[in-house]
Amino acid sequence: MAERGLAALCLVSPENIYYLVGLNHQGYFAFSLLVLPLDGQPLLVTRAMERATIAAQAPGSAHLTFGDDEEPVVAAECAIRQVTGAGDRVGIERGSMSLPVGVWEPLRQGLDDVKWVDGSGIVEAIRAVKSPAEIELVRRAAAISDRAVRAGMSVAASGVTDREIAATVYAEMLLAGSEHPGFPPLIRTRDLLLHEHVTGPLGHVLSTQDSLMMELSASVGRYHAPLTRMLHVEPAPAGIDRAAELAIAGLEAVRAALRPDALVGEVYAAWQQVIDEGLGHSRYRRHHCGYLVGIGFPPSWVGGSAVVGLRGGDDLLIRPGMVFHVLSWILGQLPPDYVVSDTVLVTPSGGELLTTTPRGAAVVR
To answer: In this structure, how many other beta carbons lie within 10 angstroms of the beta carbon of residue 235?
Structure first.
């Protein structure tokens, strides 16, 4: 903030507010604002009914409220006025989906004597590198993610519904210590594999030659560790072993390339090279082969409105302490499709797999 000449930074994303002052609740569906002055006490603006939660979770913050019959912009303007003056530079998260136009426009007009600048990404840049305490939470989430997907696989069989599998997954996650994750478990049959953010389950009864994908993450202290696995009801599809081997080889290439001081574009290139060689052509492309994860609130586990992905040509520098959800999905290329993903921690010596469920082709009766 000092480097950018900001007198205050206005934050609206649940992940950034939680990271800085510890507010962990579901009240973020209503407008919430953290005004962080360069010096002095933070100010939280929320619905009045959140008083008890703020007092318990963020006692170091001043709390300004608005009633359900009041406009939140009035309380927001009051909070910002307390710590800024005419001509001050004030940052605001313009890139967040948690900044409604109906609040931003009157706020900007009501405080037209300050210089508004885009403060998006300031906190995220710090959050990208996890502390030892944060890494421990991710490790705990990864262990629960593994337990949950293994529990789902253990009950999958011909005649079992995807709802029964989902119920087992949810129960295992909660009993093992997870809170509600940013995404619900994504449990989809093969016909919905390309519908990448359809959660399921839809009541489908597994039968011979069916396939099921489970992409899920536990959440511990709001920190996530996703993984994806596929299973097939016997007989196994023709070519499944080759498809699995190639997808897993792609994931291993990413893990090996996730080394300190590498560039994101180089990591993607390592994945692409393996896939090109395995397919025998270079026509298959994905929008990324992974993305940063950590703190997440509904509706995602990616940590906010932006997806910081492992993309071709990107020059983001890999640093120790970053955590990525690494995806190696091969769709529409080999019969059958195959998807696998894991959570990987960047350590000083390279990428460490935190989720450990076997990645090979799983076949059930």
So the answer is: 11
Strand partners, 189: 212
Q: How far apart are CA 72 and CA 48, in angstroms?
A: 10
Give the phi and the psi of residue 298 in degrees, each rounded to 5.
-50, 140
Residue 188 above 80 pLDDT?
Answer: yes
Specify the pLDDT at position 2.
96
Q: Which residue has the higher pLDDT, 305 or 278?
A: 278
Enumerate residues 6+ apart whose C-beta is below 8 A from 306. 95, 120, 121, 124
The mean pLDDT value for 336-352 works out to 96
Count of CA atoms in the C-beta half-sphere (13 A) of 148: 36
Q: Which residue has the tokens 């508004």?
A: 116
Closest CA to 210 of 253, 162, 142, 144: 162
**Model pLDDT, residue 345:** 98
CB 162 within 8 A of CB 169: no
Residue in the structure block whose two tokens are 């407008």: 31
The Cα angle at residue 84 between residues 97 and 8, in degrees rounded to 5: 45
Helix (H, G, I), strand (E, B) or coil at 348: coil
Q: Is 76 exposed, middle or buried (0-12, 13-18, 19+ CB in 10 A)?
A: buried
pTM: 0.95
Q: Give the pLDDT confidence score for residue 335 in this predicted structure.
A: 84
Distances (CA, A) of 17 to 13, 28, 57, 123, 301: 6, 10, 12, 9, 15
In the predicted model, is pLDDT for residue 116 greater than 80?
yes
pLDDT band at 170 (very low <50, low <70, confident <90, very high): very high
Q: Which domains does the chain have, with CATH numbers?
A: 8-127 (3.40.350.10), 132-364 (3.90.230.10)
Burial class of residue 265 (count of CB atoms within 10 Å of its CB; 0-12, 13-18, 19+): middle
CB-based burial, 93-131: b 16+ in 10 Å, e otherwise: beebebbeeebbebbeeebeebebeebbebbbeebbebe
pLDDT of the residue at 191: 81
**How far is the first Cα of the chain from the last one, in angstroms, to the nearest whole number?**
58
CA 232, CA 230: separation in Å to the nearest integer? 7
Mapping DSSP to helix (H, G, I), strand (E, B) and coil, where does residue 251 land? helix
